[in-house]
């Protein structure tokens, strides 16, 4: 009986041995265990990294995750790791885990021959099927993005010569991604910000680049979770198009930059920390923004069901912008907006009305408005259902400005509770209402000259107001002859 068991054990071990084999890793020179596979049936797939061949049998490497080093990446911040990491991204199966060394810097040289290449055929790291990226704090870096001045200035993505316009550090399409502890930096440095006539402004503590490029670009993605990550020094550190069911948790966005070769008389070509377009069902939780040029949060345009919490410091033009988007919930704090407004809500001539915006916003120290709700003259819809608790202080122009420039549409169903302290330091006015606005405005005012100024032509159902003021406020309501305010 013992002899029979011994023979059976030997046959079992022999059969198991035939199913597995050791091969030498071509980069580390270490032996790796592989298992016989039928996934491939041709030598052309044998790469001696994932797939091997022995005695006319094919073997697949046994691994928990793939690493850039398995494909020859150096991670020294100098060597070009583009090919190694792209090969890893290409060969990782559906749902694969990519594991980066947190002590390393992976560099993309964006090598080219100087001639035109279609944007997505440039050396962009990209992936098109589900995966988990565990960066562990590893740094992704790139050659400084370059515009080619041999191309015509207006040809943003056309011309005979190569440009880095519309490139990204990582481009993803498809469903089911996880990204954790990433550190993306496109390398744009602080420079002299240019105005729309391309003259230096003298503002030098913001990042300035040449072409429009991104850190992370999510395009037609669904079910993505990004946690504990920072994206910095790109025109758009995070760029989201045509995507849904995304969750960002503990996100840091810094130094969204200017693309100064894209400047035109109507556009200073400044980027935002995260830009959302044509996307829905997105949660941005605990976001921190710092020195972003256009804004930290840019919900522009055609977005639905967005939730945002967090704060920003020292953004340049705005802290948060919402344009032609719906069902937005915010809990946001904007501090020290250098040139513009804490929260900018715009109704424009687009396919989607700006409506259903709720939540809380605290704004301290802005060069213009604390909160600006602005309906454009050429709009094709109302701004409506705005329910906000607003707390503003030390704004230069005014704490709250509700401005309707349209002759055909309304800003309506407004329900705002506004606490104002020391607003309108340059005008002496805490709040301004211009033209047709309907709804309710309540709040308190201290340390200013005028609590509410109403101008323009009011609607048949003018906005109602109940504002409490302290003794240092000289005038509670200042209403033009053509305007109307329902005082409660």
Written account of the structure:
The chain has 488 residues and is mainly beta. Helix content is 6%, strand content 49%. It is built from two helices and 35 strands. The chain has helices at residues 2-19, 82-91, and strands at 20-24, 31-36, 51-54, 57-61, 96-99, 105-108, 125-127, 131-134, 139-142, 168-180, 183-185, 190-191, 206-209, 214-232, 236-241, 244-254, 258-259, 272-277, 280-290, 295-300, 304-313, 318-323, 326-337, 341-347, 355-366, 369-375, 383-395, 398-404, 411-421, 431-434, 437-446, 450-455, 464-469, 475-479, 486-487. It has a 28-stranded parallel sheet that branches. Strands 1-2-4-3 form a four-stranded antiparallel sheet. The radius of gyration is 28 Å and the shape is elongated. Residues 6-16 have low confidence and may be disordered.
List how many beta strands DSSP finds: 35
Average pLDDT works out at 94
Q: Figure out the total of helices.
A: 2
Portion in beta strands:
over 45%
Judged by helices, strands and strand pairing, the structural class is mainly beta
- Uncertain runs: 6-16
Shape type = elongated
Helix content: under 10%
End-to-end CA span: 100 Å
The rounded Rg comes to 28 Å
**Major sheet:** 28 strands, parallel
């Amino acid at each position: 009986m013992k002899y029979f068991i011994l023979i059976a054990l030997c046959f079992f071990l022999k059969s198991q041995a035939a199913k597995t084999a050791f091969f030498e890793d071509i980069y580390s020179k270490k032996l790796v265990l592989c298992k016989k596979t039928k996934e491939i049936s041709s030598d052309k797939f044998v790469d001696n990294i994932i797939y091997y061949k022995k005695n006319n049998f094919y073997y697949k490497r046994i691994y928990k995750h793939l690493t850039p080093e398995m494909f020859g990446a150096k991670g020294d911040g100098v060597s070009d790791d583009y090919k190694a990491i792209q090969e890893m991204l290409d060969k990782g199966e559906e749902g694969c885990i990519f594991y980066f060394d947190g002590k390393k810097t992976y560099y993309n040289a964006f090598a080219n021959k100087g001639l035109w290449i279609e944007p997505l055929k440039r050396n962009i790291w990209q992936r098109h099927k589900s995966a988990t990226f565990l960066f562990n704090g590893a740094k992704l870096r790139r050659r400084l993005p370059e515009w080619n001045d041999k191309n015509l200035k207006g040809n943003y993505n056309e011309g005979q010569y190569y440009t880095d316009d519309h490139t990204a550090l990582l481009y993803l399409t498809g469903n089911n991604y996880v990204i954790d502890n990433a550190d993306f930096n496109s390398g744009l440095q602080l420079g002299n910000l240019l105005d729309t006539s391309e003259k230096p402004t003298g503002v030098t503590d913001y990042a300035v680049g040449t072409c429009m490029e991104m850190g992370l670009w999510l395009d037609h993605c669904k079910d993505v979770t990004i946690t504990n990550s920072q994206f910095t020094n790109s025109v758009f550190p995070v760029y989201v198009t045509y995507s849904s069911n995304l969750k960002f948790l503990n996100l840091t966005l810094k130094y969204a930059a200017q693309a100064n070769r894209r400047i035109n008389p109507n556009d200073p070509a400044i980027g935002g920390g995260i830009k959302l377009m044509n996307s829905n069902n997105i949660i941005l939780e605990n976001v921190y923004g710092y020195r972003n040029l256009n804004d930290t949060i840019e919900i522009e345009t055609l977005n639905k069901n967005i939730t945002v919490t967090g704060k920003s410091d020292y953004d340049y033009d705005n802290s948060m912008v919402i344009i032609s988007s719906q069902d937005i919930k915010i809990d946001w704090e904007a501090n020290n907006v250098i040139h513009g407004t804490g929260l900018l809500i715009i109704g424009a001539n687009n396919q989607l009305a700006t409506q259903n915006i709720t939540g809380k916003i605290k704004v301290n120290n802005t060069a213009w408005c604390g909160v600006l709700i602005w309906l454009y003259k050429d709009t094709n819809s109302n701004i409506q259902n705005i329910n906000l608790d607003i707390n503003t202080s030390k704004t230069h122009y005014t704490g709250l400005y509700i401005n309707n420039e349209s002759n055909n549409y309304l800003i309506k169903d407004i329900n705002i509770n506004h606490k104002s302290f020391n607003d309108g330091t340059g005008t002496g006015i805490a709040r301004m209402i211009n033209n047709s606005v309907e709804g309710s405005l309540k709040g308190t005012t201290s340390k200013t000259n005028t609590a509410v100024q109403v101008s323009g032509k009011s609607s048949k159902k003018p906005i109602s107001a109940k504002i409490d003021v302290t003794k240092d406020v000289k005038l509670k309501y200042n209403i033009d002859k053509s305007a109307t305010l329902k005082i409660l």
